[in-house]
């Protein structure tokens, strides 16, 4: 399954810094694209700051990009004359990123390239119905390039999920764990989902947290029910949760209602109760980001 890949833009700004992590990211991304294209992957070095560039690694990178492009019929700009004394500049980084981007988009990749000083800290994935393994509990393994074993990641079903996807999430009792660098395993601890479920993963923590109240009289509709709240900043992704000020009755009502985020529009966040309409006011915690790039 093709993961969401981060690809940067290099334009020669004097403050740009091409680091070891960028060389490793380019190698990893290219191998992922090779796998998806059915091309044999390369064995790249995991470089460090002290040894982040080798002519031999650049040759392997360009050769692999050419093999993928040839296999897919995608024209790329390739330079193969790497040798000692050859100059290295931002145009080489930009060519590598552009080549990978052309291949990635041809494969159906999502998102956009980002400036060289930014970081993609929220990525999308899909839990495909046919990809679950095991006999219960069920699981699937995902490639998530930004994840490392020593970093915290929040995994959640996003506000774009449909009612059917939310119900599948609820019945499955999903749980995500990091199993190693760039690897996440998602468990379905109860029922095996029979439809695809969207998932997002955010590195670290959400940057904004606010407490709001869902009033008993504020729900609209005849089931599922919705209520819109206003936050202090524009919303890109949001997760709704219980707060410590809740009473036992409020926690039970929150859980029984099946409450989650369902739509965003600027600073407005729409909340959906899919199982029942709460009859009491509910204080909630809203964790959110205003952008998937920082």
Rg, alpha carbons: 22 Å
Provide the β-strand percentage band: 25-35%
Please bin the fraction of helical residues.
Answer: 10-25%
Major beta sheet summary:
3 strands, antiparallel
SSE order, one letter for each helix or strand: EHHHEEEEHEEEEEEHEEE
Number of strands: 14
Residue-averaged pLDDT:
95
Strand order of the main beta sheet, please?
Answer: 3-8-5
Low-confidence runs: none
Shape call? elongated
Quickly give the structural class. Answer: alpha+beta
By DSSP (H or I, 4+ residues per run), the number of helices equals: 5
Q: What is the rounded distance between the termini? A: 26 Å
The gist of it:
The chain is α+β, with helices and mostly antiparallel strands and 294 residues long. 25% of the residues lie in helices and 27% in strands. It has five helices and 14 strands.
Write up what this structure looks like:
By secondary structure, the protein is α+β, with helices and mostly antiparallel strands. It contains five helices and 14 strands. The strands form five sheets. A three-stranded antiparallel beta sheet has the order 3-8-5. Strands 4-7-6 form a three-stranded antiparallel beta sheet. Strands 9-14-11 form a three-stranded antiparallel beta sheet. The radius of gyration is 22 Å and the shape is elongated.
């Amino acid at each position: 399954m093709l993961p969401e890949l981060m690809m940067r833009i290099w334009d020669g700004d004097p403050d740009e810094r091409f680091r070891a992590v960028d060389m490793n990211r380019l190698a990893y991304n290219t191998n992922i694209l090779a796998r998806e294209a059915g091309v044999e992957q390369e064995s790249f070095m995991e470089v460090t700051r002290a040894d982040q560039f080798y002519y031999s690694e650049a040759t392997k990178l360009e050769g692999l990009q050419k093999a993928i492009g040839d296999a897919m019929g995608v024209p790329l700009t390739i330079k193969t004359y790497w040798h000692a004394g050859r100059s290295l500049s931002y145009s080489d980084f930009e060519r590598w990123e552009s080549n990978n981007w052309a291949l990635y988009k041809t494969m159906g990749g999502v998102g956009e390239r980002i400036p060289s000083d930014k970081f993609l800290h929220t990525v999308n994935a899909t839990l495909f119905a046919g990809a679950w393994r095991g006999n219960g509990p069920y699981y699937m393994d995902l490639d998530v390039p930004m994840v490392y074993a020593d970093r915290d990641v929040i995994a959640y079903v996003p506000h774009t999920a449909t009612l059917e996807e939310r119900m599948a999430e609820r019945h499955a009792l999903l749980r995500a764990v990091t199993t190693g660098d760039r690897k996440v395993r998602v468990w379905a601890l109860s029922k095996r989902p029979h439809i695809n479920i969207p998932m997002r993963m955010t590195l670290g923590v959400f940057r904004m947290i606010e407490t709001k109240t869902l009033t008993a009289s504020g729900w609209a509709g005849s089931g599922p029910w919705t209520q819109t709240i206003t936050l202090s900043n524009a919303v890109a992704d949001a997760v709704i949760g219980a707060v410590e000020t809740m009473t036992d009755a409020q926690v039970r009502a929150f859980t029984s209602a099946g409450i989650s985020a369902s739509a965003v529009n600027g600073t407005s966040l729409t909340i959906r109760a899919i199982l029942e309409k709460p009859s009491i006011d509910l204080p909630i915690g809203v964790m959110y980001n205003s952008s998937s790039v920082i």
